Each structure stands twice: as structure tokens, then as C-alpha cells.
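Working notes for the structural subgroup meeting. M.R. asked for a predicted model of this chain before we commit to crystallization trials. I am recording the input and output together here so anyone reviewing the notebook later can reproduce the run.

Input as submitted:
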Amino acid sequence: MDARTLAEIVPTVGLTNARLMIDGYNWACKVTGANTVNRCAMLLAQVAHESDGLRATEEYASGEDYNGRTDLGNIYPGDGPRFKGRTLIQITGRNNYGYISRWTHGQGMVPTPTYFVDHPERLAYMQYAWVGPAQYWLADHNHGYGSINKAADAGDIYTGTLMVNGGTNGLSDRTWYWNRALAHGRDILPSPVALTEKRHRDMKLLKVSQADAKKKRVRWPGYFKYDGYTLTHIKDANELRALTVLGYKVQTISVWTYRELGGK
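Returned structure, recorded in C-alpha cell form:
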């Protein structure tokens, strides 16, 4: 699926944030076996409701209530706010942050097996937004009702809601997202894995030389990402910051190279 389709299904996410989290959605579909229209629609419907329309990657409360929760591994002062609920289906507590760090490190997503323990606020970044939902799908919590994918295969949003919520809270909202997702048909299926992985691996963060732009008497176009196929202008400062946090180094190119890659 592409970002524009995600923003059409869940209007509250907005196109900018949809672009930041779409790779995470495609990855989540891959690891959870959401490889049919019904399964993808179930994932979208449940996660959209649980996250206030894909807007909440961090719980709204302060997290103070989690201080002293040794069952969550919160054994140090301040661990409650530090390890408050984050991602679209919330990961909460020092122990769970440790688990998710090891898991995502094994997936090649983060550089160290303690990454989110060391940098807990980064779990709220858009590019990690789908980590929580993917882990939830795979952990088979589901309140004893079985596999969420099986409910999706049966077209049963009611049972899917029981699995995620333990009841039917927000069923009408979940059904609204479910129907919107189904209406897009195969457009909600994940992008081909090989292409997605190759583009991620080959992506470069670029900027045009300001001196060269001035010399050529053209307006400085700023920063771009290039995946070997498409040159995309980075208009959002948060996206640029997120890419640099992930380790992408800015490469300076000439106006001539910029145009050769498709820039205008």
C-alpha cells in the first residue's frame, strides 16, 4: 500500500504522517502474515481505532501511574513516564521495551538489542509506529479467542474486535475503518517485499549544494531521499530528523546530478 491510500482510509493521519509510517505498515503486514485484503483490512481497522485514527503513537497520560510497577519491570524512579505506552498499540514498561528492542534488533530495524531501553522516546517515532501492532498480532494475546487472521479470513470484524479489545468497545468505529479499507481492495496489500527491502537498503539522503544552486541561478531545492527509483522532496523537518536518527548521512550533490535523478 502507498501513503496516499492509507491517508484516504484513515483521514485523521494526514498525508505527511502516512508517508512516515507507510514502510512500517508494509513491514507489519509481512511479519504478521497479513497477505490478503481481509487480513490487511482487519489490521488497519483495529489499529486505527486503538490509536485514535493513527494519531497516537504515545499515550496521552503522563505515565506516572506506572511508577513502581515491578510487573512491568519499572524498578527505578521515573520508569513510569520513561516507559509509558508507545506505538499504535502501546508497548508499556521497561521489560516490554527490552523485549521489543531485542525483537526489532533481530529484524534489523535498530542498531542495538537495548535500543528502546536506551532511547525510549524513539519508540513513538512514526517509522516505529507499527512495531507494537505487529508484536501484538504475533504474541497471540487475543483474550483467548484465537487468531486475529482467522477472524479476518472469515470477514468477522465482531470477533476480531473481541480478540483485540476483550469486548466490543468501539465496534462501530472499527467497522467503519474495516469497510473503508475493504473498499480499496488490493490497493491495501503490502508492497512487494523484495522491492520494499531493496529501496530501504539503497535509500540515500541527499541535498543540493547551495553554492552550486546559487552559481546556476536556481532556487535551492533543499533535501531529498532517493531509493534508486524515485527522488522525493523532504518537506517535513520531522521526517528529515527521523532519517538522520536512523543513521542516514546527508550527501551533497550538484544541481546537474539532481536534475539527472529527476529533480526539476
